[in-house]
Amino acid sequence: MSELTRLSADQAAQAIAAGETSSVELTQALLDRIEAVDGAINAFLHVDADGALAAAKASDEQRASGATSYLSGVPIAVKDVFTTVGQPTTCGSKILEGWIPPYDATVVAKLRAAGLPILGKTNMDEFAMGSSTEHSAYGPTRNPWDTDRIPGGSGGGSAAAVAAFEAPLALGTDTGGSIRQPGAVTGTVGVKPTYGGVSRYGLVAMASSLDQAGPVTRTVLDAALLHEVIAGHDPMDSTSIDAPVPAVVAAARRADVKGLRIGLVRELQGSVESGGGFQAGVQARFDDAVGLLTDAGAEVVEVSCPSFVHGIAAYYLVMPSEASSNLARFDAMRYGLRVGPEGVDDPSAEQVMAASRDAGFGDEVKRRIILGTYALSSGYYDAYYGSAQKVRTLIARDFAAAFEQVDLLVSPTSPVTAWPLGEKSDDPLAMYLADVATIPANLAGVPGLSLPVGLADEDQMPVGLQFLAPAMADDRLYNAAAALEGLLEDRWGGRLLDQAPVLEGAR
Amino acid sequence: MSSGISRADVEHLAGLARIELSDAELDRLAVDLPAILEHVAVVQRAAGDDVPAMSHPLPVDNVFRADEVRPSLTPEEALSGAPESDQQRFGVPKILGED
After folding, report:
1. pTM, to two decimals
2. Cβ neighbourhood burial of A305 (10 Å; 0-12, 13-18, 19+)
3. pLDDT above 70: residue A1
């Protein structure tokens, strides 16, 4: 494997700036890597070699003639939920197969403006509904640590692309954990910024009050660098926060937890053996990491967030309700799949719509649309959707009370490591439980970051730790995570991903 | 409240959601949905009447922008993904029935 593909985005930016390599050379190396390993991983639904190389050439030329952005020339992979002019946007669904959007998402436009070549579009659970990327209509993505296991979801493609050194950077979206949980199970870094911190314009909506775009990377500093490129107020998104972006890069460079007050969420820890919900190896690596934070001068205390236990229940009402409404736009009239009902001559628009939605949507999408339709229907609205919204208030209050005592909260990101493909694909409830630790942040709108903290003893698969911060205090995540990352890498003698197996066809 | 959702209920909901489900899909969802609803019904006992509902993490106000003309999609761009189009219009099946 080319050494270029193993560079972090920060290292790559410095190498390009120093003239040690060029964006074209780096982009070609990554395209070669994708060619070599993506048959085994299936992280990409579409690779745009010509477009990426053209953007790389433009970046190199611009650099030769003057100023460029810090990350100019460093390639990125984009989750297939963001609209991209010139590249298909399918959301992992048959209903959008081959659709080329006529406009760019704001974050994609920001990437282009900053000179980042877009390598391609990454695989995902259909319309971001799932925790394993097995619900993609285009086949599952595989975990680079063990290709018989899931890479997490819904953003398994972005996480696997970064973990397999197919891209130093990727974009994800996180509605209930879809950036952080794939990060945890692939040994990579994933950040869900504060709700409203990054524009949702051009992000195909699942649950509008929960969705948030964010960075998928191999290092905390890289995530901060990407965060600064994509964040900020966007007049095209009415929920975009009109305030300065938190100083996340400076925070990642500071990396000092001395004197920080960090809260262990009582409801989000405990091994299965001790009566909790977390796999033993997950809890053990988490405990080790918390020990390192304490040794480095953080004050770690236990806090209680009693309503978090109702988070999954509230989430699996709020999210399907919003999804059932958002996905009504796929009506077979203006774009997307159109098929006629069988055996009907001259069908009506309504019949065509219903037949197209049956043919175009997969099982999990249909399940959530029907569930959401039920939760919003007359007679059940107060009992389900209304009650879930009240739980949301309780969870937000838990966060507010906790952040009066501590600067940051911490928990394992996922209760389990990556499970074997197929293990939970027929059991929706089992799949939903994977989101227990990540969902509260989405319901309350606060930012969260997952970073790798080691391998579980029982299966040698990566474990993630999640920091949570108050809204618009995203910088605190980066400071603490960069500090912990440094402490862990001193102990490991390198990055965790250095321990990942070499992929077939990539020697 | 019980989550007694029958196969007929699922069929009705699918109609509301404009999804023509097959018999096998209806059978499957008639099993899945009650199981999921039983799990999420805990929200009904979690919060008292005095707890306000939260629809959104941010205070949501109307957001206005200046009423200024700016570039928009061309007709060709807007129609570029259409299953059928004619004379700069979306082509759609009939809206009204024969009777």
Report:
1. 0.97
2. buried
3. no
